[in-house]
Design a protein that fits this description.
homodimer, Nuclear Transport Factor 2, Chain: A
């Protein structure tokens, strides 16, 4: 992996592919310090976050990513701020929902974990 | 100021009020290390960022904030991740634009500066 944009793209592809196929497997991306704000509701720690994600009331979901932006988020650590916008197709609905999601990725060994995760639906 | 939500609200109110009234005054919120991604174009440092903001091709602008989310962004420093969504009314247009913006705020004396700033229009 190289610059922020490439790392962000790789993370976003991996994350939504995992989310759309089996979101219970996302647990390994979070730690006990991780925070999720899901439509304004706060969750802390891998267990609580994945419980929230796996109990969302849909069977089938597809993220279609429109934009990815990335910036280094610390002068001292190779952490990354990643902002995503796109469409969420829920249970094969013909009316995709706009979403916005922000992650902060923290380096950990040769990989990253998600410290911050903020998800919002955008209503037009 | 108290918790993340209150600080974020206070910052967002101040930032967009300043932006909508005289965006040249936003310079004091940025430092040389600050980064702006504006519709995918990168700018670094207070001078370059404010030059970009002040040369945006509109005379009159109004931000109508719909959602604000905030999370602490570091285990060691009182920095904050702030995610905003809302509507942008440009030159009194009857067709507001959806936007999404993310800030990372870093404490500095009794105040904060903006290290990260990512702005995107969201097209429905």
């Amino acid at each position: 992996m190289s610059g922020p944009d490439a790392i962000a793209k790789q993370f976003v592809d991996f994350y939504y592919n995992q989310f759309d196929n089996d979101r219970s497997q996302l647990a390994s991306l979070y730690r006990e310090s991780s925070m999720l704000s899901w439509e304004s509701s706060p969750f802390q720690g891998s267990t609580a976050i994945v419980e929230k994600l796996t109990t969302l009331p849909f069977q089938k979901v597809l993220h279609k990513v429109s934009t990815i932006d990335a910036q280094p988020s610390s002068p001292t650590v190779a952490s990354l701020l990643v902002s995503v916008s796109g469409l969420l197709v829920v249970d094969d609905s013909e009316h995709p929902l706009q979403f916005s999601q922000v992650f902060q990725l923290i380096p950990d060994g040769g990989s990253y974990y998600v410290l911050n995760d903020i998800f919002r639906l955008i209503y037009g």
